[in-house]
Design goal:
By secondary structure, the chain is of the alpha+beta class. Helices cover 14% and strands 32% of the residues. The chain has a domain of 262 residues: Alpha/Beta hydrolase fold, catalytic domain (Rossmann fold, 3-Layer(aba) Sandwich). It is globular, with a radius of gyration of 25 Å. The protein starts with 42 loop residues before the first helix and ends in a 9-residue tail after the last helix. The relative contact order is 0.11.
Amino acid sequence: MNPTRLLALLPALLTAACGPSAEPPEPAAPPAAADIPAPTYSAEQFYQTTSYGMASSSGHAFSPDGTALLVSSDATGVFNAYELPVGGGEPRMLTNSDDNAIFALSWFPQDRRVLYTYDSGGNELNHVVVREEDGSSRDLTPGENLKAGFLGWSADGAYFYLETTERDQRNFDVYRYSAADYSRELVFENPGMQVADVSADGRWLALDRPRTSADSDVYVVDLASDDREPQLVTAHQGNVEHAAWEFSPDGRYLVYATNEFGEFNHAWRYELTSGEKTPLLQAEWDVMYVTHSPGGRYRVSAINEDARTALSLTDVTTGDAVELPPLPDGDLLNVRFAADERQLALIVNGENSPSNVHVVDLAGGTSRQLTDALSPAIDPTHLVAGSVVRYPSFDGLEVPALLYRPHGASADNKVPALVLVHGGPGGQSRLGYNAMRQHLLNHGYALLAANNRGSSGYGKTFYHLDDRRHGEEDLKDIVWGRKYLESLDWVDAERIGVIGGSYGGFMVAAALAFHPEAFDVGINIFGVTNWVRTLESIPPWWEAFKESLYDEMGDPATDAERHRRISPLFHAGNIVRPLLVVQGANDPRVLQVESDELVAAVQKNEVPVEYLVFPDEGHGFAKRTNRIAASDAYVKFLDTYLKAAAGTMD
């Protein structure tokens, strides 16, 4: 819940020569998929796969007449908003940006106007824009150095709610906008909390207040009252994490998450008038979210089940589970209902199938796939599915991970490997299609996507094992990932590298600096290298959870010495293995100066170091051309340095 915790088998034709009287040979057993080589594809072919995302869960994904879906897609190479016919057919482009990525938010509930959001070159200063029916657009949140977001609609469609930092860069105030003329009213001046949801009747506002990395509260505000003072919902003792999810469609309840009653997040309900709290859903894994259809008939819930999403649909009127029609294997994501609740749309993301949009007729029990995202140049049977594994770390702790074995890898054909580190620090590597992973696998590199201690999804104890210990025990989990890879008879134990982005990029640089012989190469993708600077220069809109961030990572005012001790930049003289650094020039989280300084420091060691800066990206890749260039750079670097490496663990 803490925002710091927010990549046809080729048949073998065998012939047997037999004499006239020979018995026919026994048919050879088909080799395992991993033992059959696959053709090599380019990064461009992998990234010609189209990405799709649904309109906001707080908005309307279905058009008012139910005939079209509002989606985001990078079909042109840059994300734009599209109208996707529910009956099938080609999507229609609604925005035409070739520079800044645009993401669809919502249809207007009574016409075909659209809300969307964009930032400038990845600077994360989002604006909210309305696209009129004639194709013209209007920025609803004009100004410099502000960040805005969409919160939702009133039940009657007369108003919508936006949050913006225009008054104070540190805090998101809430405005109610008229759908008719875009006039607005300030309904809540935020004292320093995170805005979670507005009820459909416009009366209630839900807020989160992170206090520490392990303790947070939920508040509600009665917008009909004069003082509009936040009221505490989650009074408790000790460290308990809470997060507001959504108000019920009838405005009676707030649904929220809590880990007060065990290791994992449970869903609870808070009755707004009486204050009564009751359990709604629990599992042996984290409940990821609970949401409802517009009229409240259906409830959707998702469980984070060992790096997979287990989704359930319940008919609230009967309490019965609703069976969806057959869908492809994969995680079911982005569930959106039509206003009449007769249809729903969702995205299916599988290991060998990227995210595709499907629409389900709930009354008829049928489904239709509306998109075909995978590049036509790629045979899906040449993709690689991951498996969930666990390996022991230095202290015996079992580390969950995803293992990917390239086609053709065997004891007789050992392949080089990479330990892949996720971002966060409290993120999670999950199963599902990822073009970067598949490109690396296709070029013969095995992957171990480690969920080191501190990762989410495995209980609160595991999640907090790295608090104020970052770059120490969690880094050893990554180093011990190499030991695990060395134990596999199809991995070349002398050629193992490490790769990661964001916090994972920090772990790459830290591994090379503090365990200089552990890995043979490293790829640091926009990773932190100087925690002193990073924690002193966090974006102002992180103010609401700065206290929680400092509790987890340490306050730069008092912990600067430890931050310096774990920062790879100050220990770059130890780096002796080849390093590739990738950076976005507009990154507001990891400033370019961090990567500049690391590269300069490593160059002094006379160690091979390559540096790739994207002038039009921020903390991640919004443009296809840049994703292709980066992925090509990873493979070229690995082909040059890892296939020639021979390292040993320290």
